[in-house]
Amino acid sequence: KNEVEQSPQNLTAQEGEFITINCSYSVGISALHWLQQHPGGGIVSLFMLSSGKKKHGRLIATINIQEKHSSLHITASHPRDSAVYICAVRSKGAQKLVFGQGTRLTINP
Amino acid sequence: EPEVTQTPSHQVTQMGQEVILRCVPISNHLYFYWYRQILGQKVEFLVSFYNNEISEKSEIFDDQFSVERPDGSNFTLKIRSTKLEDSAMYFCASSQGTGGWNTGELFFGEGSRLTVL
To answer: Nearest Cα to A29, choosing from A70, A59, A57, A74?
Structure first.
């Protein structure tokens, strides 16, 4: 079983739709990261969470530690949001991040 | 905004050759990492580096690989005797830490694409 599972693997939506990407993990963590990978390959950190909820612009990330689950929401989606969104966790006591497979999001105009 | 820079952006090499990938982390960061992503696969951890030594490494990071921070600014990944399966995008990342523990957001470089022929 993968330590980090994301769903869906692929998501296509129309501009303006509300987007939710889910992440489940199986280990105790010290932090969960949401990252964005652009077509050219570069990775940008969106959020680092250890509890609760964070918001940045149209992006919202939530985490439920008891259920080992996190969600990334995008409000009023736009074609420029098209990218791969990756969930990654840092286990307690570890330095490394363990990555999920990513969710490929395509927003059509 | 400070950023992590990596060179080269793309390197093509022959199997068996040595490759050095270079990274300049953000200047006040204390934790440094190398990750790799084989085409179509998820990102995998290779190694973390703190206080001038390896703090954690994966099973991928065998004797073929080494890391170094030769001059206090560059952070390099050396791959000796490259194999076809080393073809991947290699990402350097850095983060701040407080009180000797890494609590910081990770900043990634744009990646170095390595193609082994």
So the answer is: A70
In the numeric block, which tokens belong to residue A103? 């969710």
Which candidate from B43, B44, B55 shows the least CB-CB separation from A86?
A: B43
Tokens representing residue A82 in the block: 């098209």
Q: Do A96 and B45 make contact, defined as CB atoms within 8 angstroms?
A: yes
Q: Average pLDDT over chain B, rounded to whole?
A: 91
List, for residues B57-104, the tens digit of each pLDDT value.
Answer: 999 999 999 999 988 789 999 999 999 999 999 999 999 865 445 567
pLDDT at residue number B12: 98
Place of tokens 């990334």: A72
| Geometric angle at alpha carbon A62, from A60 and A64, rounded to 5° | 175
Lowest mean pLDDT segment, chosen from A16-20, A99-103, B4-8, B105-109: B105-109
**Could you give the CA distance from residue A6 to residue A40 in angstroms, rounded to a whole number?**
21
| DSSP state string for B6-48 | EE-SEEEE-TT--EEEEEE--TT--EEEEEEE-TTS--EEEEE
